């Protein structure tokens, strides 16, 4: 699993990349929690999501937003981080020309950034949002939401209360032409402590049901 450095809007960005198997494998970009609250690409939830996508055969990239790890720049309230995510997706596409499909995944703050990226990049086919912070950030920009996806939430989350996420899901589910699969992980807190296996199983199950080309691209786990 190579370390990668690629250009971002405010200097270099640091990432980890795993190339998929098969011809033109699907690609997936992971986004981490809030940089000012200890969020990094090595967060356990983000790492597990990354591993799960890699096992399914995706070319996967996780990266540090500006000001985190070796990524240059300073926290920019989400605006700059969205630009970072766009640069990361550009890099991922450059190394995977003609990929069969494009997915994004984010945890907490990263889910908020990921859903904004979804609105700006029509090539994104689907999303995985884990504990999207609907109680902290405005998600009304998802009008309409351009793609179907999976939202995962713990019912014991004391950072993002489950009812706030349910309200977001209800709004999205009223939109035409998309399907939001909402799965609640019982007894899971915000960081899915002792529940990461269930998180992984739900993501793998969703991807296997919604990405037809995966049958030909099964990969070994990433490091």
From TrEMBL:
A GO MF label: hydrolase activity
Record key words, sorted: Hydrolase
Keyword Hydrolase on entry: yes
Protein name, entry field: Alpha/beta hydrolase
SUPFAM superfamilies registered for this protein in UniProt: alpha/beta-Hydrolases
Segments forming domain Xaa-Pro dipeptidyl-peptidase-like: 22-198
Keyword Hydrolase in annotation: yes
A Pfam family recorded for this sequence: Peptidase_S15
Species assigned in the record: Rhodovibrio sodomensis
């Amino acid at each position: 699993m190579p370390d990668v450095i690629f250009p971002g809007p405010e200097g270099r960005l640091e990432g980890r990349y795993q190339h998929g198997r098969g011809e033109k494998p699907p690609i997936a970009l992971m986004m981490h929690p809030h940089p000012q609250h200890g969020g990094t690409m090595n967060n356990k939830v983000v790492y597990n999501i990354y591993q799960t996508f890699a096992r399914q055969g995706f070319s996967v990239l996780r990266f540090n937003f500006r000001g985190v790890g070796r990524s240059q720049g300073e926290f920019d309230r989400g605006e700059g981080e969205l630009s970072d995510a766009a640069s990361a997706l550009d890099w991922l596409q450059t190394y995977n020309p003609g990929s069969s499909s494009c997915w994004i995944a984010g945890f907490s703050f990263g889910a908020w950034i990921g859903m904004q990226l979804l609105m700006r990049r029509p090539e994104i086919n689907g999303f995985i949002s884990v504990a999207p912070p609907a109680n902290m950030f405005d998600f009304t920009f998802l009008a309409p939401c351009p793609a179907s996806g999976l939202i995962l939430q713990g019912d014991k989350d004391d950072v993002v209360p489950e009812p706030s996420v349910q309200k977001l899901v209800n709004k999205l589910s009223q939109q035409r032409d998309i399907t939001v699969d909402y799965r609640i992980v019982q007894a899971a807190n915000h960081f899915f402590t002792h529940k990461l296996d269930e998180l992984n199983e739900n993501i793998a199950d969703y991807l296997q049901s919604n990405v037809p080309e995966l049958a030909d691209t099964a990969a070994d786990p990433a490091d």
